[in-house]
Structure formats: structure tokens, C-alpha cells
Amino acid sequence: MSPQARKDTSEQAEFRSYCRDWLSQHDAGTPAVRLPQSAIEIMHREQLDYLRRWQGEAYAAGLIGCDYPVAEGGGGRKDCQRVANQEMARAGKPFLPNILGLGMAAPTLHFHAQPALKERLLPGLFSCSDIWCQGFSEPGAGSDLANVQTFAERKGDKWIINGHKVWTSLAHFADWMILLLRTDKSSKYDGLSYFVVPIKAALGKGVTVRPLIKITGETGFNEVFFDDLEISDDYRLDEVGKGWQVAQTTLLHERGAGPMVTPSSGRGSAKASAVGDAYGLIDLAKNSLRDGQCAADDPLLRDDIMQMIIRQEGSKQGARRAKVEGLCEHPMRIPLQAKLVMSEIRQDNAAVAIDILGAQSSLSINDDNAPAGGEWPLAYMNSYGITIAAGASEIQRNILGERILGMAKSK
Ligand SMILES: Cc1cc2nc3c(=O)[nH]c(=O)nc-3n(C[C@H](O)[C@H](O)[C@H](O)COP(=O)(O)OP(=O)(O)OC[C@H]3O[C@@H](n4cnc5c(N)ncnc54)[C@H](O)[C@@H]3O)c2cc1C
Q1: Which residues pair with 182 in a beta bridge?
Q2: CATH number at residue 13
């Protein structure tokens, strides 16, 4: 029995057994194309269709949206999404592509949308018939998110939107967007309101999506321009001027503290990829040469790999510690530090891989001779984005310092 299964309630144990049976009988099939390393690097329709089909099947089987009310398209269970996630990862199933929808839009809708809106939107989000993206960042509003300037002007029961969002992951495929907008220029925080927008339906009618090409050649994120886009007031979440408070729900989930509130995010799981993982470095070293010898025999490299495994395992144990009453003095500390710690570990893992590969790290995924399919150099380049997305490491450290350690606020 796995350590996770040992703590199951009777409902979770029964559900775990159901998940295992279903997952053992349902294969996602072999993709016809190379899959990206994560959802925010989906570039091609074929990649999306494969992953989308898998999410749809998992939802139909009850493995997604488990803890949401039945009326919202969920399974009406209690604390079972965690179980489904563990079992999908254990079975090595593909990752769920609607990551921004499951991880952020769904809990935000659940807590802040009118019943009719969430009942309309959540089933399509869970099944992946609708892809979601997040329109928060702007050229002048990243770390200082409350500086959002994209403006929504009220005209009766409609809003007219003008402005420019940037770094919008998955917008090139998205049907819907969660959108933080300024509705009052006289107040920074109270001048923000929160909306959902059917961006695919509005393409060419007030919305333009322009992909940004990354150093890796991938088009993971985009610029999104709004020119007099008209939307109904029915798409507003919570009250006018309460956008900052609604955005805190989204950010709490984006930064990994979502499972502390219910329903759990239903972010779903990814196949445990050897790329980016410290244990994957062992195989890479065994199959690489260094000064004509097997790289795994180099004592300095062996030490680097061990250090990464220790850090990775330490981080996992920390996450377990957060669940044991009395062992964690501040329950939000570990979830809040998870994104910071894991993104930096993955970046350092990839740096060790580059060291192991030496000159061969210049071979990309398009080169037939690239060791391990060229995935490690790609992971190395993408790892820099992960330490910035969802709040840069410096900002995460500020949050931990101020909110957990009680240090003086940064100016
Ligand atoms: C891969 C990726 C995917 C993304 N996806 C999305 C998305 O889907 N939707 C979306 O809305 N946004 C998305 N973003 C944007 C992301 O949220 C912002 O990049 C991030 O919040 C940082 O903002 P910025 O890029 O404007 O940098 P800035 O805020 O300009 O920061 C620049 C540097 O200054 C530092 N800094 C700024 N303020 C402080 C401070 N007070 N104290 C210490 N250091 C500070 C930062 O840490 C950083 O190193 C994505 C970004 C990446 C990299």
C-alpha cells in the first residue's frame, strides 16, 4: 500500500480502487506527434487534440472535477481530486492540457461566479471542450499586478474593453479567458474588476491574439489585444471593484496553495517525466561520456546528482509534513514555498544535465543525434520561464518573508 493510500478515508479508498481499475483499463494511446514538456508549450493542433481527448475521457470517468458540486459538473465528492491526481501520475498517464482552466479558472468561478455562469462554463472546462487562458499580465503589470491598465468602460448592461495583455499562455488555442480589468482609474486596488471572456468567439471582433516565439522556438504564450470588445455584464465575477479580491483566489491556486481551500484544484497530473526530474539525471549520466569515460563514473558529477536528489526528496517530504498536524507551525508555509522551491530545483536539475551533456547540449530536439531526444536542453531553457511565471522567485521570497516570517514589508 502506498503511503498516500494509508491515510485514505473509506470514500477515498473506494475511489482510489475505482481510479486504479479504470486507469489500468484505459490507455491514452500512442501520440502521433512528439508531446511538449508541459501544457504551456502546446504548439500544434495534433498535440492539443491528443491531450484534449485524454482529459475528456478522464472527466467522463469521474477523475476530474471530483470535488466540485454535481450542479457545477463535478463529482460531488470530498477531497478525492488528490486521490485521482496521485493515481493518474502513478499510472504514467499524459498531463491534462487545460491547466489554466483546472488550476485557476475553475476554483475562481466556483467561489465568485453566479450559479448560472458556473453551471454553464465548468462542465466544458473539465471535459476540455473549452480551453481556458489567463489574462492578467500586461507590459506594465507583472509583479505589480494591481497596475493593470486594460480598461473596461460600462455602457448599460455591457462593458467595452480596450488594452493589451501579454505572456498569455495558451491564448492561441483558448475559448475562454479569465480577465483582470481596470474599471476605475481613480483607485489602484478598488478600481479593478474581474471578468470571463469568450475570446475565441471574439477573434477578429475586438480580440487579436499574436503568438510570441520563445528562445526554444516554441509558441507557448501570446500577446492579446482588445479593441472596443463588447461583453455582457453577465460575464463579471463578483462585484464591480472587487477584482483584486477575486484575483487573490486565482493567485492562491496558481501559486500552489489552492488545495488548502476546497474544492481542490483538480489540476490533474502529468506523466512523471524523467526530464526535469533529478532521478532522470542518473540515466543521462550512464549514457553520456565525459573525457572518454562513462559520465556516471565521474565523482564530481555523481556528487552533483546526489545533491539534486537530496533537494528533490527534501522538498517532497516537506509537502508531506504540511499535512501532519502539529509538525508545521504555519499551514500555508509549505504550499506557498512549493512553487519557489520546485521551480528552482527543476532549473538546477536541468543545469546539471547540461553539465553532463557538455558540448552535446547544443543539439536540439530536431537533431536525430541529440542525447535523450534533446529534451534536457529544452527543459533547461524553459526552466527560466517557470521561475518567473505565477510570480517571480523574488516576489515569492517577499511573500514568504512578509506573510510567513512577519518581516517588514518591502517598499
Ligand atoms: C512561462 C510563462 C508563462 C506565463 N503565463 C502567463 C499567463 O498565462 N497569463 C498571465 O497573465 N501572465 C503570464 N505570465 C506572466 C508572469 O505572470 C509575469 O512574467 C510575472 O508576474 C513577472 O512579471 P514581469 O514579467 O512583468 O516582470 P517584472 O514584474 O517587470 O519583474 C522583473 C524583475 O524584477 C523583479 N521584481 C519586480 N518587483 C520586485 C520587488 N517588489 N521585489 C523584488 N524583485 C522585484 C522580478 O522578480 C523580476 O526578476 C507568464 C510568464 C512566463 C514566464
Answers
A1: 151, 192
A2: 1.10.540
Q: Strand, coil or helix: what is 236?
A: strand
User: Could you tell me if the CB of 96 is within 6 A of ligand 1?
Assistant: no
Instruction: Give, in order, the Cα–Cα distances in Å from 69 to each of 26, 79, 293.
Output: 25, 12, 58
Of 32, 100, 57, 28, which is closest to residue 271 (Cα–Cα)?
A: 28
Q: What is the pLDDT of residues 232-257, one digit of tens each?
A: 999 999 999 999 999 999 998 887 76
Residue type, 64: I
Domain match, 138 and 125 both: no
52 is in which domain, residue-wise? 3-96+121-129
Together in a domain, 125 and 162: no
Do residues 235 and 284 share a domain?
A: no
pLDDT tens, residue by residue, 291-321: 899 999 999 999 999 999 999 999 888 777 7
Task: Give catalytic residues, as residue numbers.
Answer: 254
CA-to-CA distance for 370 and 378, rounded, in angstroms? 11
Q: Which of 3-12, 261-270, 281-290 is predicted most confidently?
A: 281-290
Residue 205 CB coordination number (10 Å): 10
Cα(242)–Cα(93) distance, integer angstroms: 39
- Length of the chain, please? 411
Task: Please identify, among 190, 214, 243, the residue that sits at the C-terminal boundary of a domain.
Answer: 243
CA of 144 to the centre of ligand 1 (A): 8
Q: What are the cell numbers at 312?
A: 528533490
Q: Which of 309, 289, 307 is nearest to 298 (CA)?
A: 289
Report the nearest atom of ligand 1 relative to the CA of 145.
21
Instruction: Measure the CA–CA gap between 357 and 372, rounded to whole angstroms.
Output: 10
- The CATH number of residue 148's host domain is 2.40.110.10
Q: Whose CA is nearest to atom 35 of ligand 1?
A: 394
H or E element in which residue 155 lies: strand 151-155
* Number of domains the chain is built from: 3
